[in-house]
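Quick one, T. Sequence first:
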Amino acid sequence: MQQRIDATRAQIADAARRLVAAAGYAGTGVPDIARAAGISTGSIYRHFPSKAVLFQEVFQKASRHEIAAFAQAAQVPGTAPERLAGMVETFARRALQGRTLARALLVEPVGPELDADRRRFRAPYQALIEEVLSEGIAAGELVGQDPRITSICIVGAIVETLLGPLSEPSGCEQGSEEEDALVRALVAACVRTAGPLPLAPRSE
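Structure tokens:
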């Protein structure tokens, strides 16, 4: 019985996520979710007491998926600046590829519960960047700094830079030169913020 309950709950959450990815929170209604999940509207409320709680589930599952991708990018071998560049590019490319879902995860107004989740789910991104920065400082690849503060600044820069493109799907088409230029500029700015040491001049 519990397995059936869990399976139905996951089915509802997956259907809601697909619809949010296509239309955002505002464009996703409970009847739409019920149709997509193949169940009655009343059945949804037996698993989720409110639409807000269901959207929290969607946000948390989608956010964990994105954090896993970010963590995987952090493990790619390279210097700290190279790893940081890869992490920032991974985040930006994934966000621009799935603009509606990314906007829902990052900024779309929903309610105070989801706003609290957003603040909480920034912490893993900051922690992963902080770890890479700390390793870079220890290896002599980055200037001495407070890696926690720098990581907060970098996460903030990523989100603020992407807000415009995510809110205006027609303003920067996926795979376009404009999108590529945006990602390159964002990556360069974040790496500069981390303070990479200048390359030593080659000996003659």
